[in-house]
Amino acid sequence: MPRKGLLFVVSGPSGAGKGTLCQDLLRRRPGLRFSVSVTTRSPRVGEVDGVHYFFWSRERFLEAAGRGYFLEWAEVYGNYYGTPVAEVESALEAGSDVLLDLDIRGARQVKEKVPDAVLIFILPPSLEALHERISRRGTETEQERRLRLEAASGFLKAARDFDYIVLNDILEEAGRVLDAIITAERCRTSRQLHLIDELIRTGPSRGKEE
Ligand code: ADP
Ligand code: 5GP
To answer: How far is ligand 1, taken at its centre, from the CA of residue 19, in Å?
Structure first.
C-alpha cells in the first residue's frame, strides 16, 4: 500500500529564515514537494512567476478564493497570499510529502482542515537578529520592514500552538534539525503500521501458527 504523503507547514516572523531553510530542506530531500503560493504582491528582483510565487491581481485572487481554489488564504502585510489546493492534494495522494511556507493564520487554517499536518515554527535567536536579517535582505522598503517587525512579537506568541520550534541561529544546524523532524514524523507508529501488517502478511512463520 503506497504511503500517503505528509504535509509540513513552516511558519514564523518575516526574516526568521523560513525561505532559506525551505530551500535548504528541498536540497536535502529532492522528493519533497514545495507548494508554490499565489500572491498579489509585486515580484522582487530575481523572483520568477510560477517558481517563487504565482503573481496575480487582487481581482483574480478574490475571484479564485470565492470558488474554493485555495486550501487556505490570508491577507499578510497588506497583500493576499494563498495555497492552491489541487496540487497539494494530488501530491499527497500520490504519496509525496509537501512543504508549505505560510503566515500564522494560514498555518492555523491548514491544521483545521488537515489535522495531521505538522506545524513547524522558525524562531530567530533575537529580535535584533531579525531586524538585521530583514535589513540585510534588502527586499522591502523602510515602511514594509517596519510593518514586518511590528508583527513579529505577535507571531512569537503563536509559537506555542505549533508542533515544533526550530531555533534558526546557526543556519547549518537549523537545517539539520528541520531535516530530523521530517525523519521523526515519518517514523511515527501511526504512520508505520502498514509495515507491520506487511511483515505479518509475508513473513516465513505464516501458516505455522494457523
Ligand atoms: P523569511 O523567509 O523567514 O522571511 P529569509 O529566509 O528570507 O526569511 O531570511 C532573511 C535573511 O536572513 C536572508 O538574507 C537570509 O540569507 C538570512 N538568514 C537566514 N537564516 C540565517 C541565519 N541562520 N543566520 C544568518 N542569516 C540568516
Ligand atoms: P514574502 O512576501 O516575504 O514572500 O512572504 C510574506 C509572508 O507570507 C511570509 O510569512 C510567508 O510565510 C507568507 N506566505 C507565503 N505564501 C503564503 C500562502 O500561500 N498563504 C499564507 N497564508 N501565507 C503565505
So the answer is: 7
Helix H or strand E segment including 184:
helix 171-186
Interatomic CA distance for residues 149 and 25, integer angstroms: 25
| Torsion sign (Cα): 155, 161, 162, 165 | positive
Per residue in 184-197, pLDDT tens?
999 999 888 889 99
Containing structural domain, residue 121: 7-35+96-209
Asked whether residue 194 is assigned to any structural domain, the reply reads yes
User: Ligand 1 centre and the CA of 194: distance in Å?
Assistant: 39
Structure pTM?
Answer: 0.93
Residue 68 maps to a domain:
no
Question: Is 147 contained in some domain?
Answer: yes
From 9, 81, 98, give the residue whose CB has the most ligand 2 atoms within 8 Å, as the site to mutate: 81
Grid cell, residue 21, equals 531553510
| CATH code, domain carrying 198 | 3.40.50.300
Question: With left for phi above 0 and alpha for psi between -120 and 50, is residue 55 left, alpha or beta?
Answer: beta
C-alpha closest to that of 17 among 157, 141, 163, 178: 178
Confidence check: pLDDT of 209 > 60? no
One-letter amino acid of 2 = P
What lies within 8 Å, CB to CB, of 132 at 6+ separation is: none
